[in-house]
């Protein structure tokens, strides 16, 4: 089965279990569709009123209003990322997030081995970048480096060290970041030495970082 055939099968299976949705499995588009269905669709969700009442209680108990958490927030690249974030906080995700994730796993199981879980949950692997985990790891590295560039000096022990970090060029900060295993704050606090011989190529890393900066459109909040 080639990639086009797998994509067609994935869409057909989701349409079948979701009463015609054209969205991707494990997508925010599907979460929004389910949220709207939960407001009105008693035939597919006969328990929807009980769930909505329960969600109001849960949302109040975990102080969503106080924490400025909105049910429509798309916190995370995908609903599964959102579920992980909720577990780490901890807080309960809305029912539509859980349903969307469940549907994605149903698509995978119904395919009977013809679809990879990676393709169902996160889409096809991207040439030259890798699977979803590899892409997310690279994004996290760039995001952490961006934070280090902007406020890394705050964690230095002395005022001189803080001033030195502030004056360092982007290239020098990249060398330090990579030589300290991409976690210079932790490494310095534990007395680790920089490894200049086995680090990634700084120029190549900065090219990737600059591409990431352009695609994030300035959204570099940690």
Supply database-style keywords:
mainly alpha, disordered C terminus
Could you explain how this protein is built, in words?
The chain is mainly alpha-helical and 222 residues long. Helices cover 60% and strands 0% of the residues.
Strand content: under 5%
Helical run tally: 11
Structural class: mainly alpha
Q: Averaged pLDDT, please?
A: 89
Oligomer: single chain
- Main sheet properties: none
Rg from alpha-carbon coordinates? 22 Å
Q: Low-confidence segments, ≥5 residues, pLDDT <50?
A: 218-222
Number of strands: 0
Helix content: 55-70%
Estimate the global geometry from the Cα principal axes: flat
Distance between the termini: 41 Å
Topology as a string of helices (H) and strands (E): HHHHHHHHHHH
Outline of this structure?
With 222 residues, the chain is mainly alpha-helical.
Outline the fold blueprint.
Layout: H1 3-17, H2 28-40, H3 48-61, H4 79-88, H5 95-110, H6 117-122, H7 132-151, H8 159-167, H9 170-179, H10 184-189, H11 202-216
């Amino acid at each position: 089965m080639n990639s086009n055939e797998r994509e067609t099968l994935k869409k057909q299976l989701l349409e079948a279990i979701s009463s015609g949705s054209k969205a991707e499995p494990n997508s925010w588009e599907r979460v929004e569709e389910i949220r709207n269905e939960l407001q009105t669709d008693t035939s597919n969700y006969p328990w929807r009123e009980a769930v909505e009442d329960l969600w109001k209680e849960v949302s109040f108990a975990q102080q969503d209003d106080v924490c400025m958490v909105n049910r429509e927030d798309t916190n995370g690249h995908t609903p599964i990322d959102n579920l992980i974030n909720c577990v780490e906080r901890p807080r309960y995700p809305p029912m539509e997030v859980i349903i969307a994730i469940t549907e994605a796993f149903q698509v995978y199981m119904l395919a009977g081995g013809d679809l990879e879980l990676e393709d169902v949950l996160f889409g096809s692997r991207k040439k030259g970048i890798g699977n979803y985990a590899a892409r997310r790891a690279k994004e996290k590295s760039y995001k952490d480096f961006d934070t280090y560039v902007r406020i890394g000096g705050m964690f230095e022990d002395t005022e001189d060290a803080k001033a030195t970090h502030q004056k360092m060029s982007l290239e020098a900060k990249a060398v330090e970041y990579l030589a300290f295993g991409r976690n210079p704050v932790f490494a310095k606090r534990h007395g680790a030495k920089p490894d200049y011989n086995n680090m990634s190529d700084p120029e190549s890393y900065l090219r990737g970082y600059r591409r990431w900066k352009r695609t994030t459109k300035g959204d570099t909040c940690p």
